[in-house]
Structures are given as structure tokens and as C-alpha cells.
Amino acid sequence: MTNIRPSHTPFHNFLLKGSVAVLLCCVLTQLQALAFGPPLALFQDIPPGFEVDLKKVGQFSFRVANRSKNPQSYVLSIEAPPTDNRKSWEYGYEPIPDLSWCKMHKDEITVPGATTEKVSLTIQIPEKPENYNRKFLFYVRIQSGTKQNIGVGLSLVARVLVETKVKPDVDKLGGKGLAFAPGQITLKGKPGSEFSAEVLLQNNFGKDINLKQAKLSDFYQEFKFQRYQSSGFTLLPKKGWLSPVPDQTVKKDGKNKYKISGTIPDSAKAGDKYEELLFIKPFPVKNEEKKTPEEIEASSLASMSFLRIQYIVE
Which of 20, 48, 71, 83 is most buried (most C-beta within 10 Å)? Predict the structure, then answer.
């Protein structure tokens, strides 16, 4: 079943203050009253090869609220995220390869005064082996105006995260960097018991890569406004579960086995459901491009992949 996890904040609110409001007073009547949300939504288990209407399948819609007294028109579009500011959006997700895979039900909407309308979208990802176990990101942008007369350039953006159906063994693992199969695993055990699992990790960089492990719980404060967790699960406690994975080198164009292990603490309680995201940061074996340490770190963050690990305490 598709899991929808919208942000806790239901709307973007457009606000203008001080001198900026004076300079842009001509657009206040159109945008100052606009509210749009949720600003972030997560859809999981999207099956390639099927047309997924998010309104029908997940009862999901964006809400467009016009808080002015007069009718307002808005244009909605699907866009690729920027590539020059990767830290501004979620680590571990890659831009969706083809924007035509996503379609808004309406790309233009007129909302009566003091009214909220809803608009949803459909996702159809081609049925190909490389499209399983993928984690995509795209933007939904709303602008004041009509398609014939777009507003002055002020707009609001919502982020949409899409995780495709998990498949443990596929002929080809897609992605420009590192690819896991499966992309999500579920571990069950009693308090005090040990666990272990093995997944496939394919290096699609075209060159040998060094890997370093990082967990979401290690740097969660940086993501305090982001919503990575699946519905019904809470972030794994920082210590006592997952054992460190040694840094390792993976050869280019090949599938590698990636092993994880750990222990469920005695303090865990039956029925607890936790989730951890294990990020893999790739670093070049050789600095052939002669990048600075800062450039290498930035490139590593931009190319991270993650394995979603769910724990159910029995």
C-alpha cells in the first residue's frame, strides 16, 4: 500500500514584510493570501508499470487556499529540483529522470475568494528493472496568474518524494551512483537478540568508490524540518542497535554484498516499531579531478544513497 507522509505543516504561507512589500505591492492582491500545502509529501511502494492516481490510491491532494475576498487563478507545474544547492533538499533522493512521468490533474486552477480547492497528481513510472528500489524527488510549483499571463515571478514550491516498489533481486540496479536491492528491509526480533542482513549494492559511478557509513540519527538535527520516517515508525535511538559498518571499497560496474548487523537492546519493548536510514557516502579512490576537500565532501553528500531499515520488536 502506498504510504503518504505529508509534512506536519499543512500550508506554505506567503508573507511580505517591510520595504519588500512596498516594492512588490502590485502582486500583493494575488499572492499574499495564497496558502499551499503540504510543503513535503512522501509516497512509498510506487509500482513501476502502473498509473498511480494519488487521489484515488492514497486519498492525497494538495490544498490551494485563497484567503482573499476575490477569485484568484494559479498555475501548477512539475519541475526538477536544483542541482547547485543539494543541501536544500533531501539527501539520498535523486531528481526524477523524466518529468513526464508525473502529471498534475489540473495545471491551472481558479479558486473563489475565501475558499480552499484541492488538486492531485498521477505518477506513472515505466516498467523497467532499473526503476525498482529507486528514490526520486521532484517539485510542484504554484504561481499566481494563468498560463497566458503568469504572475511577476513569485511562487511557492512543494517537494514530493517517491520511493518505488522494493524488489530484492533485479537484473539491473538503476541510479547514477549507488543502488541498493532491496531498498528497504524489515528486521524482527526480541529484546536482547542479535540480527543480521545482507543486501546487494551496485556501483554505477563507472569507477571504484570508497564508502563511508552515516546514520540519519547521527545528524538528525540537520533534518529537523524534513520528514523521512514511514508512517507508524519512529526514529531509531542513537545507540545500541546497529553495529558500525567498516569503510570499504566497491569496484565499478559490479554488484557487491553489503552486510549489516546489530543487537536489539534489552530495554526495547514488544510492539515497538523503529526505523533507521543507513546512508552511504561515496568518496573517490583517486582524486583524478583534483578537487578540494570541500568539493569532495559536497559531491559525496550530493551522491549519497540510503537503505531504509525497519525494526519490529516482538
Answer: 48
